């Protein structure tokens, strides 16, 4: 183990995530053997990870500023319902771009509302996004009466179900977006400002940075990541519904925290979050193969989140 840590990256969180991946693979190889290492199982992991991944990136981005976005699932469902309604009502290919643009504009609107509530009015992020989550969820159910909208063109279905050279296209799309977010956070002025804002908002404001503009931008980007997740959800399920993904909110927070994002803001890297997602997806897949109840798995995630935050606060 000591020899292994010497050749791993110097970042403590990344090193921990890589070791966890190795330990999980060893554990399930001993208990499940070839079932865990089958091509079908890894294909399933690679197909499920992108949707959760985009939502987790949206969550982690807001947590870098010391905030949170509880409305990401509701926003994704709202975007998918709007796009699905346009696509079904106007099946021609010329309206597909209109549907995608409408979904992106709705996401940007939601992100702007969240950002203004937090940065201008001064509502705490958890209350602001809880309010928008409740409002959007209610509107989603009210306007659709809880119905499912289905039947999308092949191009939409390809996003979540197609592959390139045997690699799921959704996974390639997620990795490209994650790389783009990494560039923004670690190679641009905006990224450095986001970290600075999360570390000390007052000092950031006194340094001449428009914290209102940065916070609104962060929540717009978070909502646009939800829009990307909405596209993949529509594709994977070939339908849109107000209640999809309700259990994923906890997992996005868990992935962000396990990935090294400080809930108080200022610290965290995209690579750590991506590795945490891989660990969680591998664990969930292995537990499913072992026949463990999904409810027990959810309880396990909650326990892990509480334990990790408690340990982090104890170190602090």
Please provide a written account of the structure.
This protein is mainly α. It has a single domain, classed as Orthogonal Bundle (ABC transporter involved in vitamin B12 uptake, BtuC). The chain has 14 helices and four strands. It has helices at residues 2-7, 12-32, 39-63, 72-89, 96-121, 125-144, 154-161, 169-187, 189-199, 201-206, 211-237, 248-258, 270-289, 294-315, and strands spanning 149-150, 163-164, 167-168, 239-240. The strands form two sheets. The chain has a two-stranded antiparallel ribbon. A hairpin with a 2-residue loop joins strand 2 and strand 3 (167-168). Helix 5 packs antiparallel against helix 6. The longest helix has 27 residues, at 211-237. Residues 1-10 have low confidence and may be disordered.
């Amino acid at each position: 183990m000591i020899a292994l840590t010497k050749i791993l990256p110097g970042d403590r969180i990344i090193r921990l995530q890589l070791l966890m991946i190795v330990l999980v693979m060893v554990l399930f190889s001993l208990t499940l053997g070839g079932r865990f290492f089958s091509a079908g199982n890894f294909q399933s992991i690679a197909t499920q990870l992108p949707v959760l991944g985009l939502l987790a990136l949206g969550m982690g981005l807001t947590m870098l500023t010391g905030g949170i976005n509880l409305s990401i699932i509701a926003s994704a469902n709202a975007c998918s319902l709007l796009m699905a309604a346009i696509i079904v009502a106007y099946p021609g290919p010329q309206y597909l771009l209109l549907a995608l643009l409408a979904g992106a504009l709705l996401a940007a609107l939601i992100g702007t509302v969240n950002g203004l509530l937090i940065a201008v009015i001064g509502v705490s992020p958890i209350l602001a996004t809880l309010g928008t989550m409740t409002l959007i969820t209610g509107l989603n159910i009210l306007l659709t009466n809880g119905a499912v909208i289905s039947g999308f063109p092949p191009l939409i279905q390809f996003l979540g179900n197609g592959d390139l050279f045997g690699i799921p296209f959704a996974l390639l799309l997620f990795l490209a977006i994650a790389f783009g977010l990494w560039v923004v956070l670690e190679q641009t002025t905006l990224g450095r400002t986001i970290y600075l804002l999360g570390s000390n908002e007052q000092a950031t404001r006194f340094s001449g940075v428009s914290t209102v503009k940065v916070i609104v931008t962060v929540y717009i980007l978070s909502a646009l990541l939800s829009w990307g997740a909405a596209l993949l959800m529509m594709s994977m399920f070939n339908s849109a519904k107000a209640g999809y993904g309700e259990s994923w909110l906890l997992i996005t927070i868990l992935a962000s925290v396990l990935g090294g994002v400080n809930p108080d803001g200022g610290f965290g890297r995209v690579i750590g979050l991506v590795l945490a997602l891989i660990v969680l997806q591998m664990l969930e897949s292995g537990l499913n193969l072992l026949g463990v109840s999904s409810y027990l798995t959810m309880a396990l995630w909650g326990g892990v989140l509480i334990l990790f935050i408690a340990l982090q606060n104890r170190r602090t």
